[in-house]
Amino acid sequence: MLTLLVLMGVSGCGKSTIGKDLTLALNSDFIEGDDYHPPENVQKMKQGIPLTDTDRYPWLIKLHSLVLEKANSYKNSEKNSPEQLKYIVMTCSALRIKYRQIIVGDNQISTTNVESDADQKENQFQTKFIYLELPKHELVRRLEARKSHFFNGSLLDTQLETLELPTEESKDLFKIDCYGKKNQEIVNEIMNIIRQ
């Protein structure tokens, strides 16, 4: 079974860095969510303007489409050979439950044909969301040190307010406390989660 691993959390939590390391460890496909933001979204974030749901929906729908494309490719390739792709690693803030639902196709916004899309998802991949948690002071430190990313650090408070944290009932959402840990330790924790 193909598994989609979504590394989620606010900007600066390490999604891209851990995502690349995890991709190497799993020999998997990698989708860098930030690469698929439309130019209008990037411009707003550069200017410190928070994105609205209307801004985010086309981006999330695009990510959902990419996952389906990769899942279809996986399904149509040689039947379950040992070398075959088993994981797709994706980075995406996925701050709200409804955003996570769009990514996996469990939301009316993500598709015009909800029933067939849900059937496709069920047959093609399972999903695990991995929330990378850091205290605010560490997030601020990382964002201040980062020079090449379009995200304006002034938006951090908005992201933290928007974030809907995983609960005890979240069966496909796992939280990792990343503070003070080396990247390899975090990757190892994720590997333990996906082996469950």
UniProtKB/TrEMBL annotation:
User: What EC number(s) does the entry state?
Assistant: 2.7.1.12
Reactions listed under catalytic activity: D-gluconate + ATP = 6-phospho-D-gluconate + ADP + H(+)
Q: In which pathway does it act?
A: Carbohydrate acid metabolism; D-gluconate degradation
Q: Please indicate which superkingdom the organism of origin belongs to.
A: Eukaryota
One GO molecular function term?
gluconokinase activity
Q: Which UniProt keywords apply?
A: ATP-binding, Kinase, Nucleotide-binding, Transferase
Q: Which GO terms describe its cellular component?
A: cytoplasm
Which Gene3D superfamilies does the protein's record reference? P-loop containing nucleotide triphosphate hydrolases
A single GO BP annotation from the record? carbohydrate metabolic process
- Family per similarity comment: Belongs to the gluconokinase GntK/GntV family.
Name it: Gluconokinase
According to its UniProt entry, this protein's organism is: Smittium angustum
